[in-house]
Write a structure and sequence with these properties.
The chain is of the alpha/beta class. The protein has 2 domains: 154 residues, Response regulator (Rossmann fold, 3-Layer(aba) Sandwich), CATH 3.40.50; 74 residues, Response regulator (Rossmann fold). It has 8 helices and 10 strands. Strands 1, 2, 3, 4, 5, 8, 9 and 10 form an 8-stranded mixed sheet that branches. A two-stranded antiparallel ribbon has the order 6-7.
């Protein structure tokens, strides 16, 4: 996605800010390595303490750095303050990353629209409006919304639903409840799910993810646009184009 934005808008400068947590630091290192390899310049990098409630000084530095993209990775509730301050100050750097609470359908109302234009890692494919990843996606989304009164959010909703069908499928293929036979059957899984095609990597037993739902499960990046969560990446499941904040045009 960063490569695509770079090509579309001519961006090449990134500022990285992440929470003081192992997963956040690892994400910063991973993204920095990949970004630099594709022509990005890292113009600032900061690790902020957990539960930080004022990001104004950091955002001042982002503005001074003339960064095109602000990469964020923070799972805490306080990370919403970073997004709201970014919006209030109209910082001319496009926010992309993971801001824990912001894939929740209630975030537009809770932030009074200040989550607009944020690109958020939205977890597993199948939890955003208007997606047609597989024939199972829209029925799942509608049934979830009808039952719980809210739209699903990224973390855990699709995998916890899918695993029941995975177990059923494995038992039927194995024809037994014997543990060893079920393990073999699960390893050989190849099934269409809400979020794409489910298969397991033989070497590490992890579900295989990619950007083509015909071959793998897919993750998704959402952007808040006019009160709605819009899938902007990967292209095969996108429901709308990426939008720049108007103060960056």
């Amino acid at each position: 996605m960063l490569k695509n934005i770079k090509e579309m808008h001519g961006f090449d400068k990134m500022y990285i800010t992440v929470a003081e947590a192992a997963h956040a630091r690892a994400s910063a290192d991973f993204v920095e390595k990949g970004a630099v390899a594709t022509g990005w310049k890292i113009v600032g990098k900061e690790v902020h303490p957990l539960a930080t409630t004022d990001f104004s000084m950091m955002l001042r530095d982002v503005r001074k750095s003339k960064a095109d993209v602000l990469f964020i990775w923070d799972h805490t509730p306080e990370s919403l303050t970073l997004v709201k301050q970014w919006y209030d100050y109209k910082v001319p750097a496009a926010p992309i990353g993971f801001v824990g609470p912001t894939d929740d359908p209630a975030m537009w109302e809770q932030t009074r629209g200040k989550v607009a234009y944020l690109v958020e890692w939205g977890g597993e494919g199948g939890t955003l409006p208007d997606q047609e990843i597989t024939p199972l996606t829209k029925p799942f989304f509608s049934a979830y919304k009808n039952r719980w009164g809210v739209e699903p959010r990224g973390t855990a909703n699709v995998p916890s639903y899918t695993v029941l069908y995975l177990i059923k499928d494995a038992i039927e293929r194995a024809g037994t409840m014997d543990v060893d036979a079920l393990i073999t059957a699960i390893e050989e899984t190849d099934m269409i799910t809400v979020g794409g095609r489910l298969r397991f990597d033989k070497s590490n037993h992890q579900a295989v993810y990619g950007d083509n739902p015909e071959e793998t499960l897919v993750g998704q990046a959402l952007q808040w646009q006019d009160g709605k969560r819009v899938t902007v990446w990967p292209p095969k499941i996108a429901t709308g184009p990426y939008q720049l904040p108007p103060w960056m045009k």
